[in-house]
Amino acid sequence: MTNGTRAGAPPIEGRYFEPGSARAFPARMTISGHLATISFDRDGASHSSVREVLAVGARLGSVPRRIELEGGALFEAPADARIDAAGDRESRMLARVFDLEASWRTVAILVVATVVSVVLLLLYGVPTLANVAARMTPASVSALMDAGTLKTVDQTLLSPSQLSVERRQALADRFSRLAMQAETGSVPLALVFRSSPIVGANAFALPGGTVILTDELVLMARTPDEIDGVLAHEIGHVEARHTLQMLYRAAGLAVMVGVIAGDSGQMVDTLLAQAASLQQLSYSREFEAAADRRSVELMLAAGEGRDPLAFVDLLDRLLEQLSPGASHQGDSFFSTHPGNPDRRNAVLTHARSLGWGS
Question: Cβ distance 209 to 180 under 8 Å?
C-alpha cells in the first residue's frame, strides 16, 4: 500500500466532467494517493487526464458520489464505490459499516441482537437499576413524596376517618407491634386512617412508609388478624421499596419506549407502550407475592397467636363483593395480583415452611 491506497485497487467506472463543462463522458478512474488518472473517450478519441483529488463526497443512500478534482474537474462515481483516496472523508470503520448494511444477513443478525438486547434490558436491566435506585433514595426524599401524595389523595379521593378514637388506637397498637418486627432501615412506618366510598375497602403503602387504611376495610374485616395480615402485607411493600421500584421501573420503561419508538409513528408507539404495560403487570404480581410472604413472616414474628392466612379470607370476601366468583379464579396473565386460590396455597405453603400449624 502506498500513500494510504490499496495495492491493486480496481478502477472505478463513472462519469467525468471536464473543467467548466456540464457534458459528461463515460470514464474510468484509478487513484494513487492524492492523484487520480481518468481515462475517457471524447468525440471518438481516447483521452487521459491526471489530476489531484481535492475532496470525496460521503456516501448518502443511493446518491452518486462526487469526487472533486484539480482545476474544477469532477468525477461522478456509483454510490457504493470504494474510493481509496487521501481526500476521502470516510474512515475505514465507516466504510465497513456500509458494507455490513449491504448484507441482508448482517442486517437480520443485528435486528435479532437488538431485539434480544431490548428484551434482556426490559426483563433484567430495568428492574435491577430500579431496585438500586429505590434503595439509594434518601428517606427524606421518600417522606416528601408521601406528604405530597397524601395531600393530593386527601383532596381528591379520601376523607377523614369516621372510626372512633378507641378503635383507631387499638388498630394503631397492633400495627406498632407488627412494625417492631419490620426491617425498614431509616424509613419510619406510620399508619393513617381515612374513609373513601370511592376507593372502598383498601389499604396501600406510600414510598416513605405511610400506610393508609380505609374505614371500609376495617368494617369488612371479621377478625383483628384479617386487618393485621393486610397491614403486614403493606409493610412488606415498604420494606422492599416496591412503590419506589414501580415508579423507577415505569420511568425506565417510558425512556425505553421513547428511545426505541422515536418518531416511528403512532402504531409502533402503541405497540411498545402495550409491551411496557404487560411487563408492569408481571412486576405487580411479583411484588404482591413477595409482600404476601413477608406478611406471613411478620404475623408469626409478632406472636400472640396471629393467623397468617386470615388476610386471604378478607380478600376472598372483597373479591366476591367486587366480582362474584372471582375469589375462586386462579392466576391470570392479565391480573396484577395473584389469583386467590393460588395466593392461599402460596401463603399456606410459606407459613408451614416457617413451622406454622405444626
Answer: no
Contact (Cβ atoms closer than 8 angstroms) between residue 283 and residue 246: yes
| Contact in structure between 207 and 138 (CB atoms under 8 Å) | no
Q: Which amino acid is at 84?
A: D
- CATH number listed for the domain at residues 12-101: 2.30.29
Q: Are 181 and 302 in contact (CB under 8 A)?
A: yes
Task: State the greatest distance between any 2 C-alpha atoms of the chain, in Å, as a whole number.
Answer: 112
Domain with CATH 2.30.29 in the chain: 12-101
Q: Where are the alpha helices (DSSP H) in the chain?
A: 92-101, 104-120, 126-136, 139-156, 165-179, 215-220, 224-239, 242-261, 266-302, 310-322, 340-353
Pairing of strands 74-77, 159-160: unpaired
Cβ density class 49-67: b for 16+ within 10 Å, e for less: bebbbbebbebeeeeebbb
The predicted model scores a pTM of 0.62
CB 231 within 8 A of CB 221: no
Distances (CA, A) of 194 to 167, 168, 170: 13, 11, 15
- 44 φψ region: left (φ > 0), alpha (ψ -120 to 50), beta (else): left
Q: Cβ(88)–Cβ(56) under 8 Å? A: yes
Report the distance separating Cα 49 and Cα 37, nearest Å: 6
* CA-based nearest residue to 48, from 72, 21, 27: 27
Q: End-to-end alpha-carbon separation of the chain, Å?
A: 84
What are the pLDDT tens digits along the chain (358 aa)? 334 444 456 889 999 999 988 899 999 999 888 899 999 998 889 999 999 999 888 777 778 889 999 999 999 999 888 776 654 545 455 555 555 555 667 778 878 888 888 778 777 777 888 888 888 999 999 999 999 999 999 999 999 999 999 999 999 999 999 999 999 888 999 999 999 999 899 998 998 999 999 999 999 999 999 999 999 999 999 999 998 888 887 777 667 666 665 555 555 555 455 455 444 444 578 899 999 999 999 999 998 899 999 999 998 898 888 766 544 544 433 344 555 678 899 999 999 999 998 7
